[in-house]
Automatic annotation (TrEMBL):
Keywords: Isomerase, RNA-binding. The keyword Isomerase applies. It comes from Candidatus Scatomorpha merdipullorum. This is RNA pseudouridylate synthase. One of its GO terms (biological process) is RNA processing. The lineage of its organism: Bacteria, Bacillati, Bacillota, Clostridia, Eubacteriales. Residues 93-254 form the Pseudouridine synthase RsuA/RluA-like domain. It comes from the Bacteria. Signal peptide: none annotated. InterPro entries: PsdUridine_synth_cat_dom_sf, PsdUridine_synth_RsuA/RluA, RluA_PseudoU_synthase, S4_RNA-bd_sf.
Length: 322
């Protein structure tokens, strides 16, 4: 139990809003529940959530100690009262989640609990599959990341051995990642590969495609095939041969077929005409093609997983099977 004394500058606030600010890790749903159950007392008695506080009031909070920790990414899962996940596949070792565009995989520079990793950790914590107080160092972690404005399958490891093996398999290209995108125009040829070198400008957070090697540039390889074309747009599947920053976006743009909605590498006029403000790119399928021993994960070799729907594919190419 912890006590908080209401100071002059906090007087006049509602009980629930004051506690929400004083204990930022406490989920809103749990806060309201604790008020109803009188685990949050005002001057020794239960109180309604909209009670206005006065200077000198004493709040007694019968709340677990972990909620009083300073907020940081490692404990942000505590703030997630009801995890929201679109689970593609789950077993005792891995969790495949369909991340929606707009969600961050991890917090970006400041504390944020509305991230994929926070929701995954909250999900496993609430299922009692993971308890950080019983671990020395490990926490469920993501094996791959997807940009905020890109959606698709993200792999999460439930244990340290899975994280180690999966990171090795991704690094050795034994996990195949397939993306769907809508591009402006028609790729020529309709199917092929894009080879080149990508130079990253970290200051501008932008990459540049080069045809020849240069200092700081890294090789980039993307395989693609056109699935359908209509109205000056094409639905394209891309498979990564390498995994560089903004690889598909930059290489398709350099090939004359920029992604619709891409504000950095795309066609601004067509983006505005279609009302698209984020790149239409989705990591819709992945396969485990293990060529070497995967230990406890050998059972996944040869398995393939995909999301059920990709909204922009249905919007621009309804009825097309991909």
């Amino acid at each position: 139990m912890k006590e908080l004394i209401v100071k002059r500058n906090d007087a006049g606030q509602r009980l629930d809003r004051f506690v929400g600010k004083a204990v930022p890790l406490l989920p809103e749903s749990l806060l309201q529940k604790y008020i109803r159950l009188k685990r949050i007392k005002l001057n020794g008695k239960g109180a309604k959530r909209d009670t206005r506080l006065s200077e000198g009031d004493v709040l007694s909070l019968y709340i677990n100690d972990e909620f009083f920790e300073p907020p940081r990414e490692e404990n942000s899962y505590l703030k997630v009262g009801s995890p929201k996940l679109d689970i593609v596949y789950e077993d005792e070792n891995i969790l495949l989640c369909d991340k929606k565009p707009g969600m961050l995989c991890h917090s970006a520079g400041q504390w944020d609990y509305n991230t994929l990793i926070a929701h995954i950790q909250a999900y496993l914590y609430q299922k009692r599959e993971w308890n950080p107080r019983e671990e020395n160092a490990f926490a469920p972690a993501l094996c791959n990341r997807i940009d905020r404005n890109t959606g698709g399958i993200v792999i999460a490891a439930k244990n340290a051995e899975t994280l180690r093996v999966m990171n090795e398999k991704i690094a050795s290209r034994e996990v195949e990642k397939y993306y769907l995108c809508v591009v402006v125009g028609r790729p020529k040829p309709a199917e092929g590969k894009l080879e080149g070198f990508i130079f990253k400008d970290a200051v501008k957070n932008r990459v540049y495609v080069r045809s020849r090697p240069e200092p700081g540039a890294r090789t980039a390889l993307t395989y693609y095939r056109t699935i359908a074309s209509a109205r000056g747009l094409s639905l394209v599947e891309c498979r990564l041969g390498t995994g560089r920053t903004h690889q598909i976006r930059a290489q398709m743009a350099a090939a004359g077929a920029p992604l619709l909605g891409d504000g950095k590498y795309g066609d601004g006029r067509r983006n505005r005409a279609e009302g698209e403000t984020g790149q239409l790119l989705y990591s819709y399928r992945l396969g485990f093609d293990f060529k070497t021993d995967a230990g406890e994960l050998n059972y996944l070799s040869g398995a393939s997983f995909r999301v059920e729907r990709v909204g922009f594919a249905d919007k621009y190419f309804p009825g097309i099977i991909f």
